Amino acid sequence: MKQTNQQNRMIKRYCILCVIFVCMWNIPSYGQMLTKAQMLADLNFLQGHVNEYCYFVPLLEQRTGVSVNAEFDQLKQTITGPEPIDKFIYTVRTGLNFLNDWHTGIANKWQILMCCTPNYYLSPLSNATVADTLHATYYQRLITDSIYGKVKCGIWIKYLNGKYYNIRSFTYKGIPVQSGEKISAIDGIPINRFINKYRNQMLFPLWDPVHKQWYEESFIYALPEMGMQKFSLTIGNKKINIDCAKPMDNLQKIHAQSHGPKMLLINNDILYIDMPSMFNANWYINEFLHIYISSIKKIIIDIRNNGGGSDGVWQDLLKKIIDKPLKYRYCVGMKHNAILEKAVSSFGTIKVEGSNAILTQDVTLRPDSNSVHFNGKIYVLQNQHVYSAAAALSSVALQERNMVLVGEPIPVIAGYTLPPILFKLPNSGIAFELAFSADLSGGKKNPYMDKVEVPVNLSLKEYLDMIFHNDYHSDDFLRNKDKLIQYVKEH
């Protein structure tokens, strides 16, 4: 029996090695050349899957005036001959940028591993395998780490009210360039025109719904890959020549910032909850139950710069807060696809409408047995950089009469949606995530789910004071200087 078990183990290991070898046999290697036909086939695959799955594309086109298919057709014209995968990945990133969605992008190995988990509900739609993790980290670094490593000039730019401003003061050939000076041109081209023309080559272009134009504060990081290692900026009335690889002289320092979640009493009648991410629900619950006092009249949940995580974090916290059941409607649009509909059927009722399908569920969050039974207003603070599970909380806040959404509109189509689907391109093997759904709970009044109930924006002067002279996560700043919190205190 012992000998038989040993033989069985050897056979099992051999079979596993064979499976891995077979899976990896067709995986492209670093620097492998792709033919024009292979790259065009990959772009056709990507465009085809966008048309097949991405429900939100008509909303995007209506919002920005672009044509996603026209942009794909133009992108394919840039393929003129063989290229290494290392270069083609930037073309793929450009295609993904067409969708202007934070859930869409080149996949890393952890995203692939999650997708390949046997019980993951979106796995049946994916063509990726565990073997695709082999090069995923390398590809991801090509469009992230390597890009940031090429830019050392230290210039920091802020887009505000349709214009660009230099943030960190510095000197150029002995001439002072001040913080807050307006940037009007790149290599002599008006900056808004330049960004619009090359927006899809940027790291992630955003849409300004007020001024109806694309913008990108981090455009400098895209310039080296565009062949613009050296370029000029017109700042004020000065033409500044910049080499991305060389730091500017006498760069102004930003004030040190503290980090991490926190809870804070303000005047003993406002409870401030800072949620920089949607993780670690137990910490928020325990801290909340510990700090809450009966004199609290308002609660603030601050999700500014929250990159998401799990919806369960804000849901579990609200169950400890609310006095009465909190009801909201989960309403998501997607393309009609039998496999997709089966995969997400546990999330609600699905109604097919022509080529589309609508997933709905009426959700009720009930107070837990140890809820504090708070019945006052809950203010949710957001800025432009709210994403995924955090945007889901914003969506709920817009529906609940005892919650108020305060801050900045989101520059992408946002809301409470489903996770992306992961695919890989057939020739290059590049894996990517593709968002496919849209939050329809806003109806005709808020079709892009980008609005807030109470707009509160920082002026340039307020922004500069905040980052240069304050730790804006400190107790003192939050209690006395934070503009959004001041609004809550006054209303």
From TrEMBL:
Entry GO MF terms: serine-type peptidase activity
Domain Tail specific protease per the UniProt entry, residue ranges: 269-409
Alphabetical list of Gene3D superfamilies matching this protein: 2-enoyl-CoA Hydratase, Chain A, domain 1
Coiled-coil regions listed: none
Example GO biological process: proteolysis
Classification via Pfam families: Peptidase_S41
Name of the protein this chain belongs to: Tail specific protease domain-containing protein
The organism of origin for this protein: Microbacter margulisiae
Lineage, opening ranks: Bacteria, Pseudomonadati, Bacteroidota, Bacteroidia, Bacteroidales
